[in-house]
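Appendix B, example 12.
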Amino acid sequence: MSTHPTFAIVGHPNKGKSSIVATLAEDETVVVSPDPGTTRQARGFQMQSDGRVLYELVDTPGFQRPRAVLEWLQSNERSASERPAVVREFVTRHESDPRFKDECELLRPILAGAGILYVVDGAHPYGAEYDAEMEILRWTGQPRMALINMIGPGDHVEEWRRALNQYFSIVRVFDALRADFGKRLELLRAFRELTEVDQSWARSLEQAVDVLQKDRKARQQRAAAEIADLLIEVLSASESAPCPEGADQVQLSKDLTERLRKRIRQREHSARRAVQELYRHRSLRMQTSEFELLGEDLFSERSFSVFGLSNAQLSMTGAATGALAGGAIDVAAGGASLLLGAGIGAIVGGLGAMFGSNRLAKIQLLGTPLGGHRLVVGPISATNLPWVILGRSLLHHRLVAETNHARRESLVLVADASEHLTGSIEAGRRRHLSNLFRLIRERNGLPTHQRDELISEIVAAMEAWANVGPAQEPRPS
């Protein structure tokens, strides 16, 4: 028997075995397909933490000729105590027989000591053709558990439960495609019951649950740190360029503003990738349409409306006090304000319109030590922008953290554009966050202890957001 808990996932073809493996092993490399017969060879997938194997799941082919296999076993039966030996003899004699290739492949890991997780589809009715499969598994003598997976809209759970209870000591309903972290932990605890005959496995699974819970907290903390660093970098960002006398300062300010926006978009994108890596979702895709909010441009009016604070909420948190200063043109070159004139003010005002009366950034004309001037756009002064980024980041984290690895469709979000999602953050927490945003702007960053405060506030918002926000809907890939 393996030194770590090992379970063979077996059953009829196309009943969601691979989906269960992908979900429980947190492995998106598991091939999940609606086509029967996709899995042709047994393959182990280990759930690891810090290089330690917590448990292993073996994805196997589906039964093809269970009645013929059972007939052979029964015709060669010697006694009930020798049934596992007869199963082993069947595999030895037929391992080169193409008729029984799949049965031999799925039985090998069980004969090597793996526990059995038998998967059925509770959306379809029970049939007598499954009896032979379950009887073969009973002959192996290994600990057995049945999972009723829900693939379609039907509901035949009770019918299946009555049949499965005759063959399996534990029967659980488990929706592989929609199981969140809590459901996965519940199933691991059921595994522990299954392995009570092997105390070392039971202890390992108990430790696995504890490790996974701690690992979950650590991932959340690291994700919050990534979001905090995103906010710090964005609120400290600026773009500049030489501004010689006679230059088209209006066009230059537009160009620098667009460069700044592009830089912020890219930084948000890199933060999302980092969060997805934390949860082992390296290939997660998000579709972009008018109803899929994380695909919305960060600077769109809809993003500000849905994710930012309302004007009343901005005022209540004290953030609106900096709105006027955000549109100011600061000149540090003695009389150089005449170079800008009213034109840039109009441009800045136009850019601000899309942010609900907030301007994106300060515009400064600075003298240089060698003479001449530089036009600087930044740091960010749009009071709602950090709330928009925070809201998008919290929602992205929630979906990534709860989406299991069996789902191969894109994330699709639906929300009312008038929701102001960050407004659901508790008022006292909003005030603290607003003050931290102000300090970032003033100091061009945060010292370590205040960065830690920002991370703690984001973690608290993540936990409060566990049941807040738009729902996730499936969209087939």
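The first strand starts at residue 6 and ends at 11. The two ends are 39 Å apart (CA to CA).
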